[in-house]
């Protein structure tokens, strides 16, 4: 009986991230903030240390490139660190104990 009540309650009360309109709204806000930060970069005085920092939107480009590099490195590390699907399963041959204990 509890499961019937719970399942009908789940259908009527969706979470914030379950509604596509909320996701669209959040993406618009996110992209608006990103665009605002790139535009304001043209007007804010920065204390430049290197010549590369003179480029417009340097920090946005730098952050994007850094994230892409992190993803590529993580993808390569996955190939080195991946384990067999059953690596952590308790087997008699690997543990030397009964599975009942």
Global outline: flat
How many independent structural domains?
Answer: 2
Poorly predicted sequence stretches spanning 5 or more consecutive residues: none
Q: Quickly count the helices.
A: 4
Average of the residue pLDDT scores: 81
Oligomeric grouping of the chains: single chain
Q: What is the C-alpha radius of gyration, as a whole number of Å? A: 25 Å
Measured by DSSP, the beta-strand proportion falls in under 5%
Structural class: mainly alpha
What do you see in this structure?
The model has no long low-confidence stretch (mean pLDDT 81). The chain has 4 helices and no strands. It starts with a helix and ends in a 6-residue tail after the last helix. The chain has 101 residues and is mainly α. The chain has 2 domains: 40 residues, no CATH class; 38 residues.
What are the SSEs and their pairings?
Blueprint: H1 2-12, H2 20-40, H3 58-81, H4 92-95
Quick tags:
single chain, 101 residues, mainly alpha, 2 domains, 59% helix, 0% strand, flat
Summarize the structure.
The chain has 101 residues and is mainly alpha-helical. Helices cover 59% and strands 0% of the residues. It has two domains: 1-40, no CATH class; 48-85.
């Amino acid at each position: 009986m509890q499961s019937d009540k719970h399942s009908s309650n789940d259908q009527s009360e969706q979470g914030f991230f379950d509604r596509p309109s909320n996701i669209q709204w959040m993406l618009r806000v996110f992209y608006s903030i990103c665009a605002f930060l790139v535009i304001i970069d043209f007007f804010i005085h920065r204390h430049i240390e290197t010549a590369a920092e003179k480029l417009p939107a340097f920090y946005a480009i730098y952050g994007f490139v850094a994230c892409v590099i992190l993803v590529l490195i993580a993808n390569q590390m996955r190939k080195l660190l991946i384990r067999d699907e059953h690596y952590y399963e308790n087997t008699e041959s690997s543990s030397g104990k009964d599975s009942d204990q």
